[in-house]
Queue: 4 jobs
Job 1
Amino acid sequence: MAPSSPRRPAEARLLQDFGPTALITGASDGIGRACAEQLAAQGFDLILVARSRALLDDLAFTLREEHGVHVRVHAPDLTDPEAVTTLLETTDALPIGLVVAAAGYGSTGRFVDQPLESELAMIDLNCRAVTALAHRFGQRMQARGRGGIMLFGSLVGFQGAPFSATYAATKSFVQSLAEGLAVELRPHGVSVLSVAPGPVGTGFASRAGMTMGKAARPDRVAAAALGALGRQGTVRPGFQSKALGWSLGMLPRGMRVLAMGRIMQGMVGKVSKTAGDNIRKSVS
């Protein structure tokens, strides 16, 4: 087993403030995986959560070998409320100081063309599961007097987004939840961060037939998010998120919705039922 690499002061800050263990949902791919890799390099023990057990086992083996950290894996379907409850019960006694709720998925296309079951499952994963995690771990961290919770919003969560209506609505919920919890839990030593990226190169674009332009790299989004934890309430990692957030923020809300609809149409191309088929992704 390889020894851990020397830690820089900034990395030591995260481990001191939010260690010793981090729970990461959506850990098999994208930003969740990048957070797992970076936190392991900083000395965190990890609990990796995603639906793909094989991918998690491979990642866990690599992180143990490269960094000498302890890694557990869980492969529940977090769209199932009972699976969320089981995960919370299973991890109840573990010293978790950081929760990274990166699991989520979205759909593109006209809302009425989407399978209702899939849209409701999206709400269960993006909203209900996130709320359950934040509630239980918020209680635990408040009692402990320290901890951090990272929730994943999105650039589309600051206004409605035609052709991704349900996904944008779920991310608006997450953004609002994070803002409220940040104020409530800050006096108790708990930091809550909303991470609101724009397009991220996670495989979502190719599966959706979307042209993402200069998508941000997951590792850079993860690094920006971890760097902002405990220092900001919302972070917009990536150039596009910052640029689009600034330009859209200058417009009245109704115009922002129309502008976002044009952006989504441009990314999806010909919006149809085929293009709007449910597309799962492991990060926001």
Job 2
Amino acid sequence: MRILSTLTGNSQKLDGGAMFGNAPKALWSRWMEADEQNRIRLGCRALLVQEANRNILVETGIGAFFSPDLKARFGVQENHHVLLESLAAHGLSHEDIDIVILTHLHFDHAGGLLSAWQSDSPSELLFPNAQFITGARQWTRALEPHSRDRASYLSDIMEPLALSERVILVNDDGYVPELGPDWRFHFSDGHTPGQILPEIMMPDGPVVFTGDLIPGAPWVHLPITMGYDRFPEGLIEEKEALLSDLLSRNGRIVLTHDPDVALGRVVKDEKGKFTLSEAVAEVNGLTA
């Protein structure tokens, strides 16, 4: 039996225009309210998957490793490492995690791997007993980023990961022996090359952690993309393929950046547009 729970991490405020790409503010402001600096609230949600003999964590969020000036620049709201608190609420510490799956290696998804910032010492890699799983093509991208997304990959994260010698890379066949046959991965290149989206089989249909392919509920609508996406047209095609597949299999998705919606089931509305039903703000001990 698998038990699924969503975990809150550190939150951010980022520019709404950047998050909604070519969608005008008159449209996206219906979905998310902007502050006086045009920023919208964003979560950094992780997913805890508990199996019989292991604890698997999907993503770690942005964490709290930024210095105060970078924390302000990227709109991180809390000073402490919120994800560690969320793990503690489930009776776990970072030392109890056996596998960490990283959809990609941008700092707002992998920064929670590091300990919180301290003025007198550098942050250290947490999760000492875990193997770290990410996409092979994403790993290559992170080591040799394009000038457009170089700022999203930080040596503070990449160097200790590489030195750990505990990184497992997922090739395009999507099979990871360490996870076993009940796990599969979808691949997405629209946001960043080689992003992996884990699918967890559950009795009531599959659950997919959609990473930055679908960061929140408004982005379920096919034309909506982010300004941060590398290949928006390709991303829309990937999103349509994934949502169509999940619709046919009664699937649900977990949203990492939506501050209010953690999970929802993929459906189509009366106009034939993809949307979510049974949306919930938190998942705590899902077994079906």
Job 3
Amino acid sequence: MNDLGQDLELRLVRYFTVVAAHQHFGRAAADLHVAQPALSRQIQRLEKYLGVQLLDRAPQGTRLTPAGERFLPRAQALLQAARQAELVAREQAETERIAIGYVEDLVITAAVRELRHRHPDAEISTRHLSCRDVGALSDKRVDALIARAPLPLATDDVFTTPLYEEPRMLVVPRSHPLADRASVTADELADEEAAPCAFETGDWASYRILGAGVPPIESYEDKLELVASGRAIAVLPVGDRRSSLRPHLVTVPIEGAPPSQVVLASRKGDPNPMIRNLRQAAKAVLTAPAA
């Protein structure tokens, strides 16, 4: 007769398999780090629950009864299944974690909020990156990167998902000859010497500082200061609002320039399911800011 209202305890099953392996209560108790009388009582509890004797006790040792011989392989399978279930659960808990990098002016709050709404138990962190953090994705400081294309990352190593596009604008001091123009063309800027941010490469990197002899400056704020002083001009995506915080700078639309593309990049072959979840959330809620 088993214990009514009680479930089979895996601890008791494990005790039984250890006793069966040693065929001796004393050695099994030492292996389990429990007192021998306590172990004997736990085996009796298991036998009472099952309503059958599993072990024959004798001074010279212990042996399985016929019922014990039939129960042993199933007990071992039960313990293995429980261990596998535990490992799968722990593995899932470990993979429900993501570090999201984002660069310069981009605001990814909506995507992070949506991801947390869809996966409330996941561990989600963000990391703001500057031009100096070009290796954050490749060296695994972040699991995914929301940035502006083009990126100086090998296409064979990353998987890129386009999110949205923005036109370009020229940023100049109010005293600049182009400050009063309704727009400028990309061709008018073609001969300007460029010093792009190290985070991007190509003729139309998203953050371009133009001007002869522009010194190597990493800080974005220092670059805007250079523009405000009249020593350089800048080409930025229209969604970059930071220049509007400076009263001495004005923006002019650029015609004929390729748009700035915001993308989500991740390492190819990364098994983290939260990357796919982030991609879905970002595509659902991230859009170009209103002009």
Job 4
Amino acid sequence: MIKLGLVGEGIAKSQSPDLHERLGASLGEPVRYDLVDSRGATDFDFSSAIRRLRDEGYRGTNVTFPFKEKAAQLADIRGEGVRRVGTANTLLFDAEGLRAENTDYTGFISAYRHSFGSQPAGEVLLIGAGGVGRAVACALGELSVSCIHILEHDSTRAENLSRDLNAMGIKAACITPEQAQRELPHWQGVVNCSPIGHINHPGCPIDTAGLGAQHWVFDAVYIPAHTELLKAAHQAGAKTLSGVDLFVFQGVDAFRFFTADRIAPEQIDPQVIPLRTHYIEQLVTPSTHSMP
């Protein structure tokens, strides 16, 4: 039995337990996956929660909003994705120490290519410069992005990401909501990596009046799968990429890390597309006919 977890805020409806337990069952490796939710907890301490999981014999844990940057800082060993992005969404309890990985980075590249093939990302509006925003921004650098326009209410966070991206050779600049609204029709991509649209943070992160058929739109939120942003994109004729795709591809990559000592990658590979099909059917398809 592999014991895994997820640490985050407001994660009661997460599908991660189902994904990892489903993958484990299909590969003959029983998995127990528990949620550690900081919402409503008094004086929740992230490092103490991670230490407790390790002491209780967990193999590792996923990490989500708002702890991804803390996860990277806490680690003893940082994988390539963490070193590039600066955040972590996967922690492994290894004999050598706490190992951090970032599967949001690899997962977004896989999800984008699965839906859009070799289409260049072009000029992209990035909403949210937190953990997943940094990961997706770095991933866009591998997807022929020409410029990333960062919209983030925390100006320091936005400026830090812009500086880091430019240092990597990825053109980026901070913008205001007014600039985003004015220039949106001239850009190609819209990426929401803020929590706005999530069941716990309802709403739409931007004015969608400028969306059109020339755009591709991704929303990292997958609960609900049909966010206000994706509904507007669908109505405007834009191509869309659901947070369900990132959820599946990053989840499988995390599972690879968790089970690297007992399951070969070639055993996991055939599970990816059936797993994606399952979650698209479960989380996306049932709502299709109810879309306005």
